[in-house]
Write a structure and sequence with these properties.
It is a single chain. The chain is an alpha+beta fold. It contains three helices and two strands. Strands 1-2 form a two-stranded antiparallel ribbon. The protein is elongated, with a radius of gyration of 17 Å.
């Protein structure tokens, strides 16, 4: 949604946005750029597919925008869950 709104505001010829995600658990020790080094981590692989007559510069900018959307920022930030039984 964020990508489509940005493209529309810029007047760019974005046809459609498709997001493909894959989730897996990986050993933290196998992740060279991760802070956590023990146990397992959730790994999400994202593929962003943009259709339309976009230039390579427009495609790259939309990819940057996608990485700063509210959902992406939530998933890449520290998450604390406080549960209670009501």
């Amino acid at each position: 949604m964020t990508v489509a709104l940005y493209a529309r505001r810029k007047g760019w010829p974005l046809g459609a946005v498709t997001v493909r995600l894959e989730h897996s658990k990986v050993h933290a020790a196998d992740c060279a750029d991760c802070e956590t080094k023990e146990g397992k981590l959730d790994e999400i692989r994202l593929e962003l597919i943009l259709t339309g007559g976009l230039t390579s510069e427009q495609r790259e900018r939309l990819f940057q925008i996608a990485e700063r959307c509210p959902v992406h920022r939530t998933l890449t930030s520290e998450i604390v869950i406080r549960s209670r039984l009501g």
